[in-house]
Amino acid sequence: MAKLASQFVCQNCGAAYRKWVGRCEACGEWNTVTEEAAPANQAPGGLKGKRRGRHIAFESLAGASEPPPRMTSGIAELDRVFGGGLVAGSVILLGGDPGIGKSTIALQGAARLASQGARCLYLSGEEAIDQVRMRARRLGLADAPVELAAATDVRNILTSLEGERADLVVIDSIQTMFLDSLESAPGTVGQVRGASQELIRHAKATGTVVILIGHVTKEGQLAGPKVLEHMVDTVLYFEGERGHQFRILRAVKNRFGATDEIGVFEMTDHGLEEVANPSALFLDNRDDDVAGSAVFAGIEGSRPMLVEIQALVAPSPLGTPRRAVVGWDTGRLAMVLAVLDARCGLALGGHDVYLNVAGGLRIQEPAADLAVAAALISSYAGAPLAATTVLFGEIGLSGEVRPVSQAAARLREAGKLGFSRAIVPARSKGAKGGAALKLEPVEELGQLVDLIRGSTRG
Ligand code: TYD
Ligand code: MG
Question: In whole angstroms, what separates CA 330 from the centre of its chain?
């Protein structure tokens, strides 16, 4: 059979086609399919030739394996997201929007490890050495024994690493790296995948930890390296709203630790600083007695975190009222609005609705439904919730309030921060109030509406 000279690969999801198509059938994106040279081992034919494979020795599952040794940076928020430190030979993909602070956190982590005696190499394909030095100076890390190089050719990088003992190699960024054996341009799926494969092989062979920095596209996906997610051991995303100083490092995949673990940082003049008590920070600057504000007792990874949810509901002059959401899911907001309308008679159809999660956090838990509903009702009714009230609970389509996981941990955090009332789903497992924290169980959304409206009358 004729060897395929080229193939057409979607730059978003990596799906391959024999012919060009305008829209990728796999991910539905338009204009993402470009021509690339077909990798030799993907040419038809499969296992050709007569050479027999080698026998593989099987081992019993019950055999003893030591837990992997870990390198800790001493930056607690960072180590937590890694699952308790960096595991030798692991490969980490660090993704995020341009300018969010990926290079900064990578350099800070590398510098801390280097000053503890680890050999850390920082390979920059985006910035010149001088720029990296300038950043280091700004971070107060100018004297850290990190070794720098500006390089983009993976062959040169691997040759330079040969025979060297390195504990950590940072590649900033994977989109700038290229393999000269591939024809496609740097940044294409083929190049990103090829370059990563080589670097991953190096990590596994030598026990060096490799951090691959990757940019994310507007749609929130890593440009091209979506395909990388399953090749690497750990995938971290650096999130945060522009204009907010908070940055959240989130583990979305981790072969060596828990996923959905987050580390909270604050971007300051001299780099990223850890935030040890995020709840206190997200609740900072809160006004008492403002309608449209509710505090959600959430869980991020293994950690309870209280955040303020703000809503503004106002009559709309527009035919199609505005719905604007920051930090939460638009679809979920539509659902809560529909349930409020259909089950509680709160007709918000003619109102503009703005929803904001304060501090630039992105909430993904459905457990935030109840707090969102409370903020909406409060703003609509002009009835402030007491500033010492927290809420959590999922809302079902029939208006029922459903229990959510880890109620006890949520309540403990609320108690610790001085909240005195918690509106929670009835039948929450393990939810116990106390003298300081009074529980107010609700079974359906209508009860919440009454509670909030009643608070102004009472
Ligand atoms: P950077 O780490 O270069 O982002 P990325 O590698 O994700 O593209 O961070 C760049 C931004 O961070 C830039 O807008 C300036 C800001 N910054 C600070 O506010 N303080 C600092 O100490 C540093 C180093 C950067
Ligand atoms: Mg950068």
Answer: 18
pLDDT for 41 beyond 50? yes
* Pairwise CA distance, residues 121 & 129, whole Å: 12
Return d(Cα 295, Cα 307) in angstroms, integer.
6
Q: What distances in angstroms separate CA 43 from CA 38, 125, 154, 434, one per listed residue? A: 7, 31, 24, 67
Q: Cα(428)–Cα(407) distance, rounded to whole angstroms?
A: 7
Structurally, the chain folds into a number of domains equal to: 3
The set of residues, in sequence order, having a beta carbon less than 8 Å from that of 403 and lying 6+ positions away, is: 393, 394, 425, 426, 427, 428, 429
For residues 264 and 290, state if they share a domain: no
- Does residue 271 sit in the same domain as residue 349? no
* Positive/negative CA dihedral, 422, 426, 429, 435: positive
Of residues 142, 205, 206, 196, the one with CA closest to residue 173: 196
Q: Which of 163-167, 186-190, 341-345, 436-440 is least confident? A: 186-190
- When pLDDT is averaged across residues 17-31 and rounded to a whole number, the result is 88
- The 10s digit of each residue's pLDDT in 162-174 is 888 899 999 998 9
Question: Where do the DSSP E strands lie in 113-256?
Answer: 120-124, 147-150, 168-172, 209-215, 234-239, 246-254
Judge if 109 and 211 occupy the same domain: yes
Q: Quick one: which ligand is closest to 135's CA?
A: 1
Residue 96 and residue 226 share a domain: yes
* CB 269 near ligand 1, within 6 Å: yes
The tens digit of pLDDT for each residue in 273-322 reads 998 888 877 777 777 778 999 999 999 877 888 999 999 999 999 889 99
Angle at CA 436, nearest 5°, toward 434 and 439?
A: 55
**Alpha carbon 361 to its chain's center:** 10
Is 56 within the bounds of a domain?
no
Mean pLDDT calculated for residue range 206-216: 93
Question: Within a domain: residue 309?
Answer: yes
Average pLDDT over residues 332-357: 94
Strand partners, 263: 249
Give a yes or no: residue 46 inside a domain.
no
CA distances to 58, 59, 68, 436 from 62, rounded to whole Å, are 12, 9, 17, 49
Give the ligand whose atoms come closest to the C-alpha of residue 136.
1
Which pair of tokens denotes residue 415? 């108690």
Q: Give distance in angstroms: CA of 272 to centre of ligand 2.
A: 14
- Whole domain around residue 401: which residue ranges? 280-454
- Nearest residue by C-alpha to atom 1 in ligand 1: 101
